[in-house]
Structure formats: structure tokens, C-alpha cells
Amino acid sequence: MASSPVRRALALLAPVVGAALLAVGCSREDGADAGVRRIAVIPKGTTHEFWKSIHAGANKAGAELGVEILWKGPVREDDRDDQIKVVEDFISRGVDGIVCAPLDDRALVRPLKDAAGEGIPVVVVDSSVDWDGSISFVATDNHRGGVLAARRLGALLAGEGTALVMRYQEGSASTMKREAGFLETMAAEFPGIEIVSSGRYGGATVESAYKTAENLLVSFAEVDGIFCPNESTTFGMLRALQDAKRAGAVKFVGFDAGEKLVEALRRGELHGLVLQNPMAMGELGVRAIVDHLAGEPVETRIDTGAVVVTPDDVDDPAMVRLHSPDLSKWLE
């Protein structure tokens, strides 16, 4: 039977329609469901326990909200160029939103501005950036975290003696605010404690922090107290104190948690850790993006809180949930 004009038209259109559908399918990532929003989550690094907790929180929000989480970041927390490339790659892939923990408060301004210029909303987590175009900033009050650390160390030293700070790295807004909060509080509230060193940087890895810590312990062999502002500097200093047979003898307050740091707290080799809630940062960062995309109001500043855990309350259930959360369900 001869084809009708309609059938002939459909036959002619079939290859065109097929090609168009193929093009649409190829525009998304392999395995991505059409219509499912994709939220990129970009940490400062991918090795420390802190970032694993942020990843878990982001995955939790993604599962509960029905969005796809694309997790990618530099291995090292001092690789600015790599983090910039990650942001640029997600812009080119046309993600629906970006949650980013900038490892430098200035270097990441341009790529994040570019994302916003392409209509991709940005939420900044953990560490601030010198740009006011993000939808929200989800983080610890880092200055207050430094204040808490100073008050803990000041009390341990009974307001007298010497102390030093091993900083993290220049350009990291979160740790710079912790260091500032610590130093300002020590000067204002504990004038009897002399800060003998506050200008040395541990760097982005445990190994670099360990080397700096070794040198500091040689230069200040009689120091009474130490503060370190993040996980890698705290662990690097802990190792150096252990190797020097001074762990526990020097009053030591750090920041963040990991299994080895918590065990050191139980042994009395650490005397305080300022705990954040990185899982909440990841979860609330993703939720803020999704709310914004849905036209819902979003708070421009979300404080995820900070507390000090000590050897006396390290096994309190509320503290355990912060320093040793079960991430397995969300990182499978």
C-alpha cells in the first residue's frame, strides 16, 4: 500500500529527530537521569577526614532531595590551579549549582564569579572568599573557634607561661580567622602568657606540618602550650611532640578531629580539640542550592557551630557524634 503524505513526512523526519535526541542525551553526563539536577561539590582537598564528612553530608542531602552530587576537588589543599580548573570544568558541564570550599580567598573569586555569570548559583562553605555574590555562606564562626581554643589553652596554663601558634597556610580564610581569634583572645584575656612564635606555617600536608613542628620544638624547647588551627597542622604537631617525647607534657589544643587525634585526646597527649560540624556544612550547602533553585528564601549566613572537646568529655555521646560520625551510609 502506498504511503500517505503524513507517513512520508514522518519517515523523512525520523533521522533528524533521532539525531536531536542523541545530541540531547550526549549533553549530560553518562549515567545522569534527564531532569535530575546536578550539584557540584568542590572541597579544598580530598584526603583529610574533614572533607570526607562534608562529602557524606552532601550525599545525604542529595539522596533526600533527589539531586545528583558531583564530588571533585584537588588532592592537595594548596593546589589553587587545580581547584580553579575543577570549577571551570563544572561550569562547562552546565551543572545546576556549585557548593565550594575555596582554598584561597582571592584566587577563587574569578571562577566563582564566572559560574554566577553563567547562571549557576554558588554556595560557599567552610572558608570565606573575597566576593559577595554567593547565595549563602555555610561555615563555622571561625573567629569564635579561635576564641574557644585560646580560652581552653589559657585555662590549662592558668594564665601564665609561654605558648606558640603553628599556622596553616596563607590565603586560607577559615584558618586565618581562627588564628586571629586565638591571638586576640590570648592578648586580651591572658596577658600573662607570652606568645613566643606565631609566624610559622605548617602548610597543606601533614608532612610539611610535621617538619615545621620539629623546627619549632627545637627553637622553643621549653614552650608550655601550643595551638594548631586545623586537622593537618594538629596531627603534624602531635607526631613531632610524640617523637620528641614531649606529648602530654606540653599543653596542646588543636582544631578538627580524626581517629588518631581523638585517640591522642583520650591518652592525654592532646588537651582540647575545637570541633566543627563538617557533615552539616555539606548537607546545608546542598540544601541551600536546592532551595534557591526552587525559589525559596535562603539565609545568607548559616553558622554550623563549634565546641571544644576535652579528655573529660571525649566519650560523651553528643561529642562522639561530632568527632566520630558514622559516614559509611553516605560514602558507599
Give the name of the CATH superfamily of the largest domain.
Response regulator
Give the strand order, joined by hyphens, for the main sheet. Answer: 2-1-3-4-5-11
Major sheet attributes:
6 strands, parallel
User: What is the annotated CATH architecture of the largest domain?
Assistant: 3-Layer(aba) Sandwich
Helix content: 40-55%
Properties at a glance:
about 325 residues, alpha/beta, Rossmann fold, six-stranded parallel sheet, six-stranded mixed sheet, elongated
Task: Kindly describe this structure.
The chain is an alpha/beta fold and 332 residues long. The chain has 2 domains: 38-140 and 277-303, Response regulator (Rossmann fold), CATH 3.40.50; 142-275, 3-Layer(aba) Sandwich (Rossmann fold). It contains 11 helices and 12 strands. The strands form 2 sheets. It has a 6-stranded parallel beta sheet with strand order 2-1-3-4-5-11, sandwiched between helices. Helix 4 (109-117) links the parallel strand 3 and strand 4 (122-125). Helix 2 (49-65) runs parallel beside helix 10 (278-293), helix 3 packs parallel to helix 4 and helix 7 (206-219) crosses helix 8. The radius of gyration is 24 Å and the shape is elongated.
Give the topology.
Layout: H1 5-26, E1 38-42, H2 49-65, E2 68-71, H3 80-92, E3 97-100, H4 109-117, E4 122-125, E5 136-139, H5 142-156, E6 161-167, H6 173-189, E7 193-201, H7 206-219, E8 225-227, H8 231-243, E9 251-255, H9 259-267, E10 272-275, H10 278-293, E11 301-303, E12 307-309, H11 317-323
Parallel strand pairs: 1-2, 1-3, 3-4, 4-5, 5-11, 6-7, 6-8, 8-9, 9-10
Antiparallel strand pairs: 10-12
Helix pairs in contact: 2-10, 3-4, 5-6, 7-8
